[in-house]
Amino acid sequence: MRNLVFAAAGLLLAGCAALPGPGAPAVASAGAAEYSVASLRFIGEQRIPLRMEVEGTTAGGFSGIDYDPASQTWFIESDDRSNINPARFYTAKLDYDAQAFRSVTLTGVRFFRQADGSVYPGPTKGGDVPDIETIRIDPLDGSIWYASEGDRRYGLNPWLRQATREGAFIGEMPLPENFKVWKDAQKGSRNNLSLEGLTFAPDGQSLWLSLEAPLYEDGPEPTPSHGAVTRITRFARDGRVLGQYAYEIDAIPAAPAPGKAADNGVSEILAVNSHEVLVLERAAVQGADGLYKNYIRVYAMDIDGATDVRDIPALVGARFTPARKRLVLDLNTLGLPALDNVEGISWGAVLENGRRSLVLISDDNFGAKQVTQLLLFEVRAAD
């Protein structure tokens, strides 16, 4: 794969939607370094029906969401590994204001394409089977960036790629060696616990990637009795590592029923300013009936004063200062009828009161006992 070739700021790639002209709704400036999130006020919820058909595809498995203020369009990706339909993303319109969340409408679907123009294969086909967990709109040129966790079982490494808004392949960004998977050795990324979060810095000149769980070298996964440490990395647009920071994942909030499963990890990130990133921690605890209870928290991570750990090969036993974290919202306190497998987070349109909006989305895993829910919040900035 060739390295990414970047368009100049403001220049749209072939296939990108045109930017609206004068008179388009104003959007919040994301460049103010002093902007910080103090709290989130819940406005409302909307759901997408189970296995809804959109242009001949089955919608669901939504693990990434992003808003393009230029076209006022939402982009939502499915983590379907080309099992049901080829790897894809959907466009959407959300109707809301500061008082109510009225509707969500899926308006179209596009397929992610490989370098040769073909769609990605499913697990039974072999080749570069994707596990796409995050999607972002490039704030400089309007293109799409997306990341796959890879698959340790098949020796498929995680990757970060760029596409046009129609899904056509543009390029791939080089990643650190220790992000790779090793099929026959306990080193590097864990299976299904690798690249889960992606966000651009407010000025678009750099981007962040987060690992869902620790590298093998960085210690065990979290349990109900202890947390864990993962890495969140800042990159230049050409793939150079600008900094890497240790983020402490909470212990799993409750114990699973005997013989059942539980986990906790970083499911998405969202840059706030030059040194703060919102981190979505998502825990799931399985009960005796086999169903999972989800615990969802939004934290603000601050790298000021944290150790740059890029040159520390193993965090176990190493001396370092992790990034600070501050709880912004515990979604379990909202009293929702259901709180599902929330995996995506995005800034939304500016509300009529001048404040930002924020939207979360859950991954229903295409399962009848889960729901695809979108949760809308008003962002209250710190003084």
Topology record:
Elements: E1 37-48, E2 53-54, E3 57-58, E4 62-68, E5 73-78, E6 88-96, E7 101-111, E8 132-137, E9 144-148, E10 159-163, E11 169-173, E12 195-200, E13 206-211, E14 228-236, E15 241-249, E16 262-271, E17 276-286, E18 292-302, E19 324-330, E20 342-350, E21 356-362, E22 372-381
Antiparallel strand pairs: 1-22, 2-3, 4-5, 5-6, 6-7, 8-9, 9-10, 10-11, 12-13, 13-14, 14-15, 16-17, 17-18, 18-19, 20-21, 21-22
Written account of the structure:
By secondary structure, the protein is an all-beta fold. Helices cover 0% and strands 43% of the residues. The protein contains no helices and 22 strands. The chain has strands at residues 37-48, 53-54, 57-58, 62-68, 73-78, 88-96, 101-111, 132-137, 144-148, 159-163, 169-173, 195-200, 206-211, 228-236, 241-249, 262-271, 276-286, 292-302, 324-330, 342-350, 356-362, 372-381. Strands 1-22-21-20 form a four-stranded antiparallel beta sheet, with no helix packed on it. A four-stranded antiparallel beta sheet has the order 4-5-6-7, with no helix packed on it. A four-stranded antiparallel beta sheet has the order 8-9-10-11, with no helix packed on it. The protein starts with 36 loop residues before the first strand and ends with a strand.
Helices and strands, in order, run as EEEEEEEEEEEEEEEEEEEEEE
Summed over residues and divided by their number, the pLDDT gives a mean of 91
Describe the largest sheet.
4 strands, antiparallel
Helix content: under 10%
Rg, rounded, reads 19 Å
Number of strands: 22
Based on Cα principal axes, name the global outline. globular
Report the end-to-end length measured between terminal Cα atoms. 46 Å
Provide the β-strand percentage band: 35-45%
- The poorly predicted ranges are 1-33
* Count of separate DSSP helical elements: 0
Query: How do the strands of the widest beta sheet line up side by side?
Result: 1-22-21-20
Classify the secondary structure makeup into a structural class. Answer: mainly beta
